[in-house]
Fold this protein.
Amino acid sequence: MNIEDASTTQKGIVKLNSAINSTDESTAATPKAVKATYDLANSKYTKPSTGISKYDLDSNVQASLNKADNSTVVGVSSINGNILINGVESTVYTHPSTHPATMIVEDATHRFVTDNDKNNWNTLLNSPTWNILALQNNVQIYATSTDLSYCKIGKIVYVRGILKNITSLPINIATLPVGYRPYISNVFICPSSIESNIPTFTRVSVSNTGVISIDGKSGSAPTTSTYFAIFFSFIAEN
């Protein structure tokens, strides 16, 4: 009976091989070759003078890997394999009753801002104080509570009022005090009386010396009953 040589695909006669570096897949390694290969692998690791043995190293590495497989973080749900971390629970934080000088805490009711920022914000929130300007050249207010007034919020000056009894243009109507004047002269377009269902407009200017004047008007010449609505704002000089 003929018996063929063994291979990776069929049974047969196997030839023994004692070489420790052979790649021949038609022969089988002897126990001597297996032991020599094992001894060679062990000899490749040299224990340093201050190191740990290979056995201890393998044991420590495996122990660390086992711990990494199943870990718990304070305040966080258990981490096990690919289980989703739910995150820090909302109830684990307790807000301190007092804030030490070395600690800045920010939440819905405690914000860290400078005193300057706080004062600026409070100024914007407060209702401004309007001051009434003295009118010049026989100019009159159009009705009660339409005085020509001014106020200042931050660096911005606001002027408002509705006037009448202006029959010739240009005309100076009032002067703003120091601290409420622009760096340079400003010109504004403001509404005035409606004529034949057509609105008219007025050219109003304020100089860097604070003089407010009405320089001109569209439509027909003004009369004593023509109203001039004055509304404008600008950046103050200081």
The chain is about 15% helix and 30% strand. The longest helix spans residues 54-69. The first strand starts at residue 15 and ends at 17. Confidence is low (pLDDT under 50) at residues 81-85.
